[in-house]
Each structure stands twice: as structure tokens, then as C-alpha cells.
Design goal:
The chain has 439 residues and is mainly alpha-helical. The chain has one domain. 61% of the residues lie in helices and 1% in strands. A hairpin with a 5-residue loop joins strand 1 (129-131) and strand 2. The longest helix is centred in the first third of the chain and has 31 residues, at 63-93.
Length: 439
């Protein structure tokens, strides 16, 4: 695994999120309603080649346009990542564990690139622009005309993400994005256990959810084995159909959209997990009073927080089996989904703070949904969240069919034969991405 030098860590810490947020605020209404990035941006097409060329004299980097490119890449990496997640889940639902790992890994990679991009850290092949507060961009040290070592995309993303995970700004991000009942994660934890810190929880989650980036960077042969070598030459355990169906159902339940917070069920589940990680005892009504929650609400929260059973994706995300395991692909999918949910909520916050509206982004989500087969191009939905009814029906019909058939009798062939429309809906993860990004 690549280890960052002290000077490299310093440069990453100097990256400016302010520049990224300013881009979205300043984007003219005519542009924000038609495209993510101005059509005349030099780096919009062939960004890697043009950036490399501009780093060499006498050509110079056009800082403003590069800042705009890196900024716009944060939500657009997220969009692509949801498609990778959908393909990973669809592969799992067809018993194709190897393809599921391949797609889930790239979902994880794009999610990390979005998180870094939102912090002002671009990832462009082996030359990575860092946006600073002055409005300039600096190529990650060690690159350029002076030579030095090169860290490609796979080798750069993990050490950059793991270093960022330990910074206060990462903990602050979790505070903004995990706020059930309108209370940030750190306030929940410090209220029920003064002296405990949510920062360690945030760092632990980021490292855990991105761990596959580390594993497959450490072992290039393992990554190549997963993506480029014949899977038939490997001895792997046979995946179980009900395991994949259970994961699909539970993932969608975590991504059920809410009015304020887009993924409220996920927030509540992460809160419970975070409290359990920080405080090794049952919650009480006194704890709820310390958090400012009383009466029936306090009773409900105590019952929820003391439930020892986490949703399946959160359980799987914390498990690391060998690649030959029958559940390894489900674990990678779960980690990728959680990291992607964080990256998505992060981008949504930036768009909301910049006063974007659902109508502003209609140019994207209506066309994207039509292309991905989420709705009829001639009958676009007014509000994409209305599509939850179809997902909810697919969830219930799938669960009912599994119970009626008997879990030990379910095969991939039977599920594909009896649940064709339901499996199609459950694999349409792009829909959750649309919900998650829209202000």
C-alpha cells in the first residue's frame, strides 16, 4: 500500500472545500438548469491528457476551469457510482459473484473520488490537482517536470481517503450527514456519554467502508484476478440465492427516501451503530433526557437504540471474508453502498446550500432515469420519489415469494423465473441515487 509522505499529507490538508462550494453557488441559472459543467470548459473532455499537457511549459493550467471541473466531478462521480452499484447488485441477484465484486469495487472507487473531489482533491490518472484557498491549483507533489514517484488512481485514492478520514473535517461531515431527530452524531454521543468522541467512529467507518480499495491496491494480482482473469479457474463457494435477495431487500429499506433527510432509516441505523461503538452499555431514559428527548419519543428511541440487530448491509460491511467465500461479494457491495450513501449525501448538502432545486436538475434526472429504464421517456414523473411505491411493492412481493417458496428451496433460476420484474426493480439502484442527490 502506498504511504504518503509528511509533505504530501500537508498538501492534502491544504485542499479547499470552499472553492468547490463556491463553484456551485456561482453557477449561473442558465447553466445549472442545462448541464453540470460549462460546455466550453477546457477539461470537460480528455481532462487527463489536457491537464498533463497544461502542466508543461509554455502552456499553463487554466485554474478556474480546472477548479470547476474538479467541483462538478463530485456529484457526477456519484451518479456513475450508483450505476456501478446497480450492476453489482444485479450480478449478485444472478449468482455472478465475480462480476459483483468488480462492479462494487468501482462503485467504492468512484464514491471515494467524489468525497475527495468535494474536498478540493482531484483524481486524474497519475497527476492529481489540489485546489487551494487562493483560487490556484497545485499538482500533487512528486509529479510534473521534476519527476518523482507516481501514484495512479488506484494507488492514490486509498492513502488520500484514509488520511482525510482522520481529519476533523471528516468527522464534521458525519455530523452534518448523520443527524437523526435533527441532532448531529457527535451531540448524541457526547450527550449520553460525556467525553466520548464521534471522530473515532467517523474515521473507523470511512476506513472500513473503503477497505477494499486498500486490499486491491496492496495486492494488484488480486485485483487483476477479480477483473481480468477467468473466474472459472478459481475454486469459489457457490453463492446462495436468498442471501442476495435478502441484501437487495435490506439495502432498499435503508434507502427509502424521506422528506428532509434523504435516507432517514440509514441515519438511524448508523446512529445506533455509532453509539454502540462508543458506549458499551444499554441506553436508558436518563440518556434520552440528557439528549433532550422525553416522553413517548424517549421510549421509542431507547427501544430502537437497544435493539442488537443491525440491518444486514451494516452487518456485512463490517465482515471481511476471503474472495472465495460465498458472501464476499455481498460484503463488498455493502461497503460500497455505505460509502456511496455518504458521498451522495455530501453532494446533496452542497447543492442544497447553493440553492439548487429539483427543477434545476431536471435536465439530468429525467433524462438519466429514461436512459436507465426507470420510467417511460414519454411519461416522465413530476417527483422521482413517487417511484418508491414501485420499489416498496417489489420488496414486499419478493419477501412474500421467498416465504411461500421456503428459503431452502429458492434457487437463482427460480427467482429469475418467478420475480423478473421485481429483480429488475431491485437492481435499479440509479433511482436511489436520484433521490439522494436531489435537494
Amino acid at each position: 500500500m502506498s504511504i504518503l509522505k509528511k509533505s504530501e499529507k500537508k498538501q492534502l490538508r491544504e485542499a479547499s472545500r470552499d472553492q468547490v462550494e463556491a463553484f456551485f453557488v456561482s453557477l449561473p441559472s442558465t447553466t445549472r438548469r442545462t448541464r453540470w459543467l460549462q460546455s466550453n470548459n477546457r477539461y470537460r473532455i480528455n481532462c487527463v491528457g489536457r491537464y498533463k499537457k497544461d502542466l508543461k511549459a509554455p502552456i499553463h493550467v487554466i485554474n478556474k476551469q480546472l477548479i470547476n471541473y474538479v467541483s462538478a466531478s463530485a456529484p457526477t462521480h456519484v451518479i456513475d457510482a450508483w450505476s456501478f452499484l446497480g450492476r453489482a447488485l444485479s450480478a449478485a441477484l444472478q449468482g455472478d459473484a465475480n462480476s459483483a465484486i468488480h462492479f462494487a469495487y468501482y462503485c467504492e472507487l468512484r464514491s471515494a473520488m467524489s468525497l475527495l473531489g468535494a474536498e478540493g482533491i482531484g483524481v486524474l490518472a497519475d497527476k492529481h490537482p489540489i485546489l487551494d484557498k487562493s483560487g490556484a491549483t497545485n499538482c500533487f507533489k512528486g509529479f510534473g517536470t521534476g519527476g518523482g514517484r507516481k501514484l495512479g488512481t488506484h494507488s492514490f485514492v486509498w492513502p488520500a481517503l484514509s488520511h482525510w478520514a482522520g481529519l476533523k473535517r471528516a468527522a464534521n461531515l458525519f455530523d452534518d450527514l448523520v443527524s437523526p431527530n435533527g441532532m448531529p452524531l457527535s451531540t448524541w454521543i457526547s450527550s449520553v456519554s460525556p467525553g466520548s468522541s464521534a471522530a473515532a467512529v467517523a474515521e473507523s467507518w470511512l476506513i472500513s467502508w473503503g477497505i477494499d480499495l486498500s486490499i486491491l491496491d496492496d495486492d494488484h494480482d488480486l485485483r487483476n484476478e477479480s477483473s481480468y482473469r477467468p473466474s472459472e479457474f478459481r475454486a469459489t463457494e457457490i453463492p446462495i440465492a436468498t442471501d442476495a435477495l435478502d441484501l437487495a431487500v435490506e439495502l432498499w429499506k435503508l434507502f427509502e427516501p424521506g422528506a428532509g433527510s434523504r435516507f432517514p432509516a440509514l441515519e438511524r441505523s448508523l446512529l445506533r451503530r455509532g453509539i454502540r461503538m462508543s458506549i458499551n452499555r444499554p441506553m436508558t431514559l436518563q440518556d434520552m433526557a440528557a439528549a433532550g428527548i422525553y416522553g413517548a419519543d424517549a421510549q421509542r428511541w431507547v427501544g430502537f437504540l437497544n435493539d442488537p440487530q443491525d440491518p444486514l448491509p451494516i452487518q456485512l460491511a463490517s465482515t471481511r471474508s476471503s474472495m472465495s467465500s460465498a458472501t464476499c461479494h455481498l460484503e463488498v457491495i455493502s461497503r460500497a453502498a455505505l460509502l456511496l450513501a455518504l458521498a451522495t449525501s455530501n453532494c446533496r448538502r452542497m447543492l442544497t446550500n447553493a440553492d439548487f432545486t429539483t427543477q434545476d436538475l431536471q435536465f439530468w434526472w429525467q433524462k438519466h432515469g429514461a436512459i436507465r429504464g426507470l420510467w417511460d421517456p414519454s411519461d416522465m414523473p413530476i417527483d422521482p420519489i413517487d417511484q418508491w411505491a414501485d420499489i416498496d411493492a417489489a420488496i414486499n412481493e419478493t419477501k412474500d415469494w421467498v416465504n411461500l417458496t421456503g428459503r431452502t428451496n429458492v434457487s437463482f433460476w427460480q427467482s429469475r423465473k418467478n420475480l423478473p420484474s421485481q429483480l429488475s426493480s431491485l437492481g435499479s439502484m440509479e433511482l436511489a441515487g436520484i433521490w439522494g442527490l436531489l435537494p
